[in-house]
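During the no-cost extension, the postdoctoral fellow (Dr. R.K.) reprocessed legacy sequence entries with the updated structure-token encoder. One reprocessed record is reproduced below for audit purposes.
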Amino acid sequence: MKLLHINNFFTKYGGAENSIWKIAHLLERNNNEIYYFSTDKQPYFIPDYEYSKYFPQYQDKRKSRIKNIFNIFYNFEAKNNLEEYLKEIQPDLIIIHNFLFHLTSSVFDACNKFNIPVVLYLHDPRLFCPGGLLAYSDKYCYEEPCIKGNPICCIKNRCKLSSLKASIIAALSFIFIRNQNTFNKCDVIICISEALKNLAVNAGVPTEKIKVINHFVEDEKLLIQPNYKNNNYFLYVGRLDREKGVHFLIEAMKKVSSDIQLHIVGDGYEKENLIKQKESLNLNNIKFLGYLDGQALEEEYKNCIATVLPCSWFESFGLTNIESFLYGKPVIASNLAAIPEIVDDGINGILFPSTNVDALSAAVEKLYCNTNLAIKMGRNGRNKFENNYTADVYWNKLSKEVLSSIG
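Re-encoded structure tokens follow.
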């Protein structure tokens, strides 16, 4: 089967892009022919990708001028280029991932023109929240009007980048997308968690179209042996953006013993602010290690006490949680969105109320002072990983629940 993956970026931009790359490899190993379509933001996963000649121009939407604002709503270049691309490769199935603000909903119209089956793959809540995060001002958002289709709260709360202008544009784009009947232009909708499915149903997406398929860790990592020892530090891995809540974690580190270390792996818009926060609090037990992958990242996982995910937004899954389990490490995480589906409080980790710095610091102290508990939770996490988040489990669900029903 020929499959075309459509996503805003064909580069290591974030978790969604890395997941798409893994999914594509898994599909390829199961005798499918894989193609990609995105903007021309580089570097690509595949340098000099043959079909990048069809990729429309990337524009940084945070720096776009008013004259280019219409492209945020509907990208005619993306539509026209995709139509030419489809004529050449003639795929059997199209999987559309993230498209907002860059490729836009124009890609659905190009696909529907050729009557090719379309799967919409939801990685986050952006189609149900104009601000994109279900959070604003460091608070988790429970505003029903936005989810139902009225984005007035986005403007009122300035949910997009804490900017009135950005929030108005996001709200208008949200209305445009809803009026495009995007969910009716696809055959199947994949949600990566039950929490995301529930959000979609609450927003009016037909339940019968939705399939829940969790993320997975690639087969080659199954050879990794869990390490139940540690080097006395906790670990955060991920983007350094406000909604990830790392500033809460740094605040919590002020409340724990100075002997407890924290390693922060990742990069993002908030990095400089977080470094300044650490310095202002005179904390010498926090290390910023930047972006890591491969062996360097593996060593960080292997030698930590536990990983921490202190987010304040709608975390649709949290891939770092299952990666932590892979290495036999428990997880300390915010008790919201999809996280409780993965992290079982008191069994393979500790859940705390989002933004509650005292509860977070208490969880850190608890695992630091109780080595046996951390080891027990780590073993439970590894067991859950092996039973739920392998490539085999993912492929069985995808092939039976999606591909067989379309192909």
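Residues 188 and 209 are 5 Å apart (CA to CA). The chain has a mean pLDDT of 93. The remaining legacy entries will be reprocessed before the final report is submitted.
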